[in-house]
């Protein structure tokens, strides 16, 4: 860890670490927030936890934070909601702005943008109560993935292998979200690429490969077991790693992300073609999280990573 000077630590002022929240990822966010708090405090920064799931916006304003680190995941924290409130309150914040956060949280809108930009992503369809599910199967084939497009941490994701199960899986997924994403299943290896910065200055960190038990990288295997294996660098030739980093940067910029984020990629086993899955605009910062892992591969410690992210905190809608 490269200790920052006392002068720089003081210049950050009073820092709020927003964590907890009200989404299905509340417990993960609490772990992320605790880690970020300890990291910032280790540098002498005056950092404090603030649980947006238990405290009001009026209380947030009363704390008079000079800037905040957003360690929230999912709805109300990663979807532009808290970002809009912070813009109104005039509190600089980490990560992407209102629009990019909202777009990144919506898997369907994200994929629409990527397709328009000519970026590779699995075939998909947006479903509602009136959708012809048999036609969806005919177009996308089986197996396919059914996803709640506004959830994260693999919540609301089901693999459908039998057309007879489509309606039941749709109903269960629709109970979690106001729309449903059906996506072609891509059989292959799973990777992720963390990105720091924004615009032309955004940089991709080393590629991480995720090898989960039975290929099931679910909520439990993501956060609460040690059975999932991670490889950084992965067993992948340098040219493909560079291609994944290139695609991740294009995907990140297409959504308008800044500060930091993570782009998930699948490498189809049949022909080694990479496909973009989704972008995370407020990734996990737990002991199992992938952005810190990629940063460590470049020599950037968890503590220094948190400081780098915090340095970039700003209001996005204010005039220069």
TrEMBL record:
What keywords were assigned to this record? ATP-binding, Cell shape, Cell wall biogenesis/degradation, Cytoplasm, Ligase, Magnesium, Manganese, Metal-binding, Nucleotide-binding, Peptidoglycan synthesis
- Which free-text remark accompanies the cofactor? Binds 2 magnesium or manganese ions per subunit.
Q: Name one GO molecular function term.
A: ATP binding
Q: Which cofactor does it need?
A: Mg(2+); Mn(2+)
Catalyses which reaction?
Answer: 2 D-alanine + ATP = D-alanyl-D-alanine + ADP + phosphate + H(+)
The pathway it acts in is:
Cell wall biogenesis; peptidoglycan biosynthesis
Question: In terms of domain of life, where is this protein from?
Answer: Bacteria
Under PANTHER family, the record lists: D-ALANINE--D-ALANINE LIGASE (PTHR23132), D-ALANINE--D-ALANINE LIGASE B (PTHR23132:SF23)
The function of this protein is: Cell wall formation.
Name-wise, this protein is D-alanine--D-alanine ligase
């Amino acid at each position: 860890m490269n200790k920052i000077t006392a002068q720089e630590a003081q210049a950050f002022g009073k820092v709020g670490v927003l964590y907890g929240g009200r989404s299905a990822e509340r417990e993960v966010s609490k772990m992320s927030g605790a880690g970020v708090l300890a990291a910032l405090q280790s540098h002498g920064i005056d950092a404090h936890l603030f649980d947006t799931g238990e405290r009001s916006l009026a209380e947030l304003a009363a704390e008079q934070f000079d800037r905040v680190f957003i360690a929230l995941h999912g709805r109300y924290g990663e979807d532009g909601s808290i970002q809009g409130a912070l813009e109104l309150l005039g509190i600089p914040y980490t990560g992407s702005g209102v629009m990019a956060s909202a777009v990144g949280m919506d898997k369907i809108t994200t994929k629409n943008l990527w397709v328009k930009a000519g970026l590779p992503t699995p075939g998909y369809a947006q479903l509602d109560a009136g959708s012809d599910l048999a036609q969806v199967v005919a177009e996308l084939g089986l197996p396919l993935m059914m996803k709640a497009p506004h959830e994260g941490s693999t919540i609301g994701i089901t693999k459908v292998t039998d057309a007879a199960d489509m309606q039941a899986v749709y109903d269960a997924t629709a109970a979690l979200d106001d729309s449903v994403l059906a996506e072609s299943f891509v059989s292959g290896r799973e990777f992720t690429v963390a990105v720091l910065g924004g615009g032309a200055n955004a940089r991709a960190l080393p590629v991480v490969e995720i090898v989960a038990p039975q290929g099931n990288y679910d909520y439990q295997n993501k956060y609460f077991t040690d059975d999932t294996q991670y490889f950084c660098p992965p067993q992948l030739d340098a040219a493909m790693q560079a291609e994944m980093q290139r695609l991740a940067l294009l995907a990140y910029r297409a959504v308008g992300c800044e500060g930091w984020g993570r782009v998930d990629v699948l490498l189809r086993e049949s022909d080694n073609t990479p496909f973009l899955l989704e972008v995370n605009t407020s990734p996990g910062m737990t002991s199992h999280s992938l952005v810190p892992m990629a940063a460590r591969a470049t020599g950037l410690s968890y503590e220094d990573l948190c400081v780098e992210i915090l340095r970039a905190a700003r209001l996005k809608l204010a005039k220069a």
